[in-house]
Amino acid sequence: MKFTCSAKEFSSACQTVARAASSRSGVPALEGIKISAEDETINLCGYNLELGVKTSLVPEGTFQDGAVVLDAKMLCGIAKKLPDALVDISTDKKGIATIISGGARYEIVGISADEYPEFPVAADGKRAEISQPVLKRMIEQTAFAIGESNMSNPVFTGALFRATDGVLTTVGTDGYRLAICKEPICCPDDYEFVVPKNTLLEIAKLLSDDTEKSVQIMVGARHALFEIGSYTVFTRLLDGEFLDYQKVIPTNYTTSAKINTIEFANSVDRVSIMVNDHLKSPVVCKFDHGNGAINLSCNTAIGKAADSVNPVEMVGGDLTIGFNDRYLLDALNHADCGKARIQLSGPLSPMVILPDNGDSFIFLVMPVRLKSEAGS
Fold first, then answer.
1. Among 115, 134, 149, which residue terminates a domain?
2. Which of 3, 51, 53, 343 is deepest in the core (most CB within 10 A)?
3. In CATH, what number is assigned to the domain containing residue 253?
């Protein structure tokens, strides 16, 4: 194998695909990046059997076919420090890779590409297309509500993707909050699958804000592929029955308010200064219809804090309800609109947060039982 390419592009590709390489594996090849040269194209791939990322580069100058697997951490470290605009990479019959850029020269013992597993394809799977910034926003408005681990039900460590009637719905939950996002999608097929949270975060890093760019999604029986520009992301899908999210959304409410999301989030942030890892206490929200205000307070062993948001457009009766400050802030900070609607049906029922118009997202936050309710 022998080729020359842009050192900057090579380094960027290495850093990206390396995120899918195993940090520790019984198969040494999985801790590496597979570099292959064929059909006048340079291909780089990182793959840990659960998540895979591959991309391609355009060579310059001399080119010979071949392939090798190089330690991902070592290769990324070298790629970051290449001094010249171009890098020359070649391998010999013993599998030694030589990397030359400017006056810098490295020789690395490689692993045979035959030991690297084949990257899956989804030739016969269902397909869909969606704008990159739209998918990026949907991931951001879903991933925050997904738990990091759930040994009893691993399916809840991922986001549900459900396409039906030309609408893509993504759903994430950790049992304490629920996030739902909906957008129109170009999709000839209906499907439903669950993508692990770590895969979603990697996909989001590759997505552009350019509305002219799109993502191709291909779904197989046990895995899915996301084609994003020159990158392809592979993910295994999570097995299990996902939450019937439509049944947990309250259909009736007794109190509703239209809020400025930034003002409300800032108020929650100010009173939650009293909360830390050792001092847990809910943020108490008192919806005062008569005065058109939301009064917030937090009381811990080190002190008290109070604040208010007003004027607030409010309909319905007064209500006092408590929330975990982080869960409430997460929901408010991911509402990408200046104004939002809050709907409440009681001190022990979830708060529902929606856009001022429509339902492109729906956030549910479970309340914390206050002492007054606990004794009733």
1. 115
2. 53
3. 3.70.10.10
Same domain for 97 and 16: yes
pLDDT at 313: 95
Q: Do residues 110 and 13 both lie within one domain?
A: yes
Rg (CA), the chain: 25
Same domain, 62 and 169: no
Q: Which of 293, 296, 291, 306 is nearest to 257 (CA)?
A: 293
Measured CA to CA, the distance from residue 237 to residue 151 in angstroms comes to: 16
Establish if 121 belongs to a structural domain. no
Per the structure, how many domains does the chain have? Answer: 3
pLDDT in tens, 158-179: 999 999 999 999 999 999 999 9
Full residue range of the structural domain in which residue 253 is found: 249-374
Cα–Cα distance for residue pair 296/272, rounded to 1 Å: 10
Last residue of a domain, one of 215, 245, 275: 245
pLDDT, tens digit (0-9, with 9 covering 90-100), for 37-92: 999 999 999 999 999 999 999 999 889 999 999 999 999 999 999 999 999 999 99
Whether 143 contacts 172, CB under 8 Å = yes
Structure tokens given for 304: 């008290």
